[in-house]
Amino acid sequence: MNVSCQYEIGTLKTAKVYGLVKMIIWDKMMWILKVIACLVVCKAVLGAFPWKKINGRCYHYSEDKQNWFTAERKCREIGGYLAKIEDAAENTILYDNRPQGINGGHLWIGLSDLDEGQFRWSIDQELATNVNWVSWHKASNPGHNCVAMYYIGPSWLDWRCSSAFGYVCETDFCF
């Protein structure tokens, strides 16, 4: 093989490697730009609503009185879901951190028994194992299929889903 042919083959190999490196760098830059765009959108959506970060989770309390289904949809629209209360400590924290304006009303949480007697969380359909019913309220009233946090204390009511209450949303990510 003569020298000029070797030079052309070497140039082609270099060009292919250079093109491949350029393509990899371009792909990485596009991925970084997509991540940045996603963060900007998340910040715009989540940051537009006051989220409280408590024990590693984020909560949004809304005084906007809605039925349970609309409250769930509104939570999803802002990047969350109706709150899933894992234990008594979280329940007390949610109650104690309510804004003062919400003191006069119940708050929807993400629990329902649309299948009567089977109380499940809307986010993952997990059966509720920790429940905190108001002592005087029967928790299995037919037609009462959605759960609200009682306004006087951190206990719960099984209530008509069509009732208009404030609500508390939850998400694992907030600014």
Automatic annotation (TrEMBL):
Residues annotated as domain C-type lectin: 54-170
Keywords assigned: Disulfide bond, Membrane, Transmembrane, Transmembrane helix
Name of the protein described by the UniProt record: C-type lectin domain-containing protein
Pfam families: Lectin_C
SMART domains: CLECT
Top-level taxon of the source organism: Eukaryota
Transmembrane residue ranges: 31-51
